[in-house]
Design goal:
The complex is a heterodimer of chains A (422) and B (260). Chain A is mainly β and 422 residues long. Helices cover 6% and strands 50% of the residues of chain A. Chain A contains 3 helices and 21 strands. Chain B has one domain (2-256): Lipoprotein localisation LolA/LolB/LppX (outer membrane lipoprotein receptor (LolB), chain A), CATH 2.50.20. Chain B has a 13-stranded antiparallel beta sheet with strand order 6-5-4-3-2-1-13-12-11-10-9-8-7. The chains are: A mainly beta (422), B alpha+beta (260).
């Protein structure tokens, strides 16, 4: 059903000359190293992967736009990750106070940094990005109406459900037991064709941004049950139906942002419960500049061409430090099907404000119930104008007594990504 | 006719100085006149090429499209759409500057489809890694400084007023700025920026002015030199257009996601 639709879209994109075709995309190469062998799955420590994606936009007349965002990936170890697909194929029309979108689209809801419980429209493409930031396109009809006084109202009709992606039997990081998508079951007798809907209102009040939403449809987050199949023990995903109401709010007081996301979920198969993420982000702009401005230090102690690496860092008055502190909670406690039930995140975000737009984010997530600690690092810098080098690492510690993370004991990894952007 | 208007208004600004005007009053009068002459542009668009140079002279380039909307009785609204470097292509920032309260600012990150409201308190931070701070490229409202007229002086053989101005915002990275304002057209030709220690930090020189709609003067080139780091940034503006029919709704949070 969807395939001919692409072809039509592609031919429209290539033969219109009225407005120029616009694009952004990248080709990326990725190298991942796991210092330990995995438990259970096939043994390997090193993986390479290549990928490409492009987002094409074409305007027709003043207020009609078509967006097409295909991607392709090849993975050395994980056959499930070798694939091609479409993240967006969306037709949009806009008026002065309204907007209508139809097709495969992506929307983001949320304000917090560690995890976004309110962000329920799109499915997580967890095989693409172990941090969970990548999303799959969602088939939707979306109508938006906005006014200066009353904010923004949105309604979504979601005619098809996308299942979550999981690493294959050779994929890592893996919980040691493979999720078999072929064994997926649904509470709805319509399965993937169950029609969901969502409503959202968002508005700003002085320094506060507030959003409210209601969602009725298939849970994006399946429960996983171990079953024995002819290939051994695997996990079978179960997609329940649920209703979710939620709030997201952010207040900006100068360099301090206060953030909260709260949801309540209920359904026949899932326990009625609340989840929340709340915290602050405080930015220290040029936080080392007092060292330069200090009159007690010799006038010329910071020379711009110093080769001393300590001085070079200490004299960098352009370096900003963002401090992130968030608390993650799930009323179901350790019975939750998601890992953040009573966890604390501390994050340190460095922005170098240099010509290469270098940045680095260190994060520590501590599970307060079961003791697991996750350390993460994500740092990137621009090379040769159009390339970006990113280093990503995750280290799982104190996993022994943790029901979710004990399977990840050997799954700490470090990843280098070198991408060309166009 | 044009000549007469210009001389007359220049004389009007100078004439009160001959009576009992303090240097502070005269400085403010010059800034107010300069601001008044740029009123009524309604909206404008331009392409901005930014050339960053390090001490060794190595260059790196950014291309940004800028759209501005005049707001009566308040600061302007502006959109910056990044085209280059390619890894930030499509990133868009929206600023609503205000004369009485802090500016409001949002950033759209296309890869995440996420609109982030960001702090506008970060005045002194570098804009896109350049030698321009956010406060140097923001809308220059008269209320954002206090003033003091220093002297008349020729700059590049053009008669100028030399005026000191002091940022009223305590988050500014500067203690003072010295501005050379051309007497004929009330254009800032050169600005010296003094850091929090009171030392000369940067010099900005504006050149290649063109007039649009017989009224609005815009520089095609701004050259900022950082004397302390040895780095410099050049901004080259092209394809200036005025009164293009942009609306307030083009500068809304919702429109932020739709720019290209």
């Amino acid at each position: 059903m969807r395939k001919p639709f692409f072809l039509i879209a592609a031919s429209i994109l290539t033969c219109t000359n009225a407005n120029a075709l616009d694009w952004r995309g990248n080709v990326s190469s990725e190298l991942t190293y796991f210092p330990e062998y995995s438990v259970g799955t096939e043994n390997w420590k090193l993986n390479t992967s290549l990928a490409a994606e492009v987002e094409l936009t074409q305007d027709f007349a003043d207020n009609i736009r078509l967006t097409f965002h295909p991607f392709v990936r090849w993975d050395q170890q994980d056959d499930e990750r070798t694939r091609a697909g479409v993240r967006e194929l969306l037709l949009s029309t806009t008026g002065e106070t309204w907007e209508f979108n139809a097709g495969l689209g992506t929307v983001f809801w949320g304000v917090t940094e560690s995890h976004n419980p309110v962000d329920i429209i799109n499915q997580t493409d967890s095989i693409e990005d172990p941090t969970g930031d990548e999303k799959l396109g969602q088939l939707m009809l979306n109508l938006k109406w906005f006014s200066d006084d009353f904010g923004e109202f949105e309604a979504f009709l979601l005619p098809q459900f996308e299942e979550r992606t999981f690493v294959g039997e050779n994929g890592r990081p893996s919980p040691g037991i493979t999720v078999d998508p072929d064994l997926a079951t649904f509470e709805s007798s319509d399965g993937n064709d169950h029609v969901g809907y969502a409503l959202r209102w968002a508005n700003s009040f002085d320094v506060w941004d507030l959003g409210l939403h209601y969602f009725d449809g298939t849970s994006r987050d399946p429960s996983l049950t171990p079953v024995v199949s002819n290939t051994g023990a695997v996990l079978a995903p179960r997609y329940s139906l649920l209703r979710q109401a939620g709030v997201d709010a952010q207040g900006l007081y100068g360099d301090l942002a206060v953030k909260a996301e709260v949801i309540h979920q209920t359904g026949d198969e899932i326990e009625s419960h609340a989840e929340a993420v709340t915290g602050i982000e405080y930015t220290l702009v040029g936080f080392l500049s007092p060292l330069q401005e200090n009159e007690k230090l010799p006038e010329d102690w910071c020379t711009p061409d110093t080769r001393n690496p300590f001085k070079k860092l200490a004299c960098n008055d352009r370096l900003d430090l963002g401090l992130v502190l968030e608390y993650l909670w799930d009323q179901r406690g350790t019975d939750s099907n998601q890992p953040f039930q009573n966890d604390l995140l501390a994050g340190f975000r460095f922005a170098f404000n240099d010509a290469a737009s270098s940045d680095a984010l260190f994060g520590i997530v501590q599970d307060l119930d079961e003791g697991a600690t996750t350390l993460s690092l994500e740092a990137s810098t621009r090379l040769f104008e159009s390339y970006r080098l990113t280093i990503l690492g995750q280290k799982f510690l104190n996993t022994t007594d943790d029901t979710v993370f004990n399977a990840f004991e050997n799954e700490s990894f470090i990843q280098l990504d070198f991408s060309y952007f166009f | 006719m044009l000549f007469r208007t210009l001389t007359l208004s220049a004389m009007l600004a100078v004439a009160p100085a001959l009576s009992a005007q303090t240097p502070e009053e005269r400085g403010l009068a010059i800034a107010t006149e300069g601001d008044a002459r740029d009123q009524g542009y309604i909206d404008s668009t331009a392409n901005m090429k930014m050339i960053l140079r390090n001490r060794a002279g190595k260059e790196s380039i950014r291309n940004v499209r800028i759209k501005s909307l005049e707001v009566e009785g308040d600061g302007d609204k502006s959109l910056s759409i990044f085209d280059e470097p390619a890894d930030v292509k499509g990133t868009t920032s929206l600023t609503w500057s205000h004369s009485q309260k802090p500016d409001e600012q949002w950033l759209y990150l296309p890869a995440l489809k996420r609109v982030k409201r960001i702090s506008s308190k970060n005045k002194s931070g570098p804009f896109m890694g350049s030698e321009f701070a956010f406060e140097d490229i923001g809308s220059q409202e008269v209320d954002k400084y206090t003033y003091k007229y220093l002297r008349d002086e020729d700059f590049n053989s053009a008669p100028t007023f030399v005026v000191e101005r002091y940022p009223t915002d305590k988050n500014s990275g500067y203690t003072k700025q010295v501005v050379w304002i051309e007497q004929d057209r009330y254009l800032a030709l050169k600005i010296e920026f003094y850091d929090r220690k009171g030392s000369l930090l940067k010099t900005l020189v504006a050149s290649d002015f063109s007039q649009y709609l017989d009224k609005f003067w815009r520089a095609a080139k701004l050259e900022m030199t950082n004397h302390q780091s040895g780095k410099s940034t050049t901004l080259e503006f092209s394809d200036y257009q005025f009164q293009t029919g942009l609306k307030s709704s083009d500068f809304s949070k919702n429109a932020l996601k739709k720019q290209r």
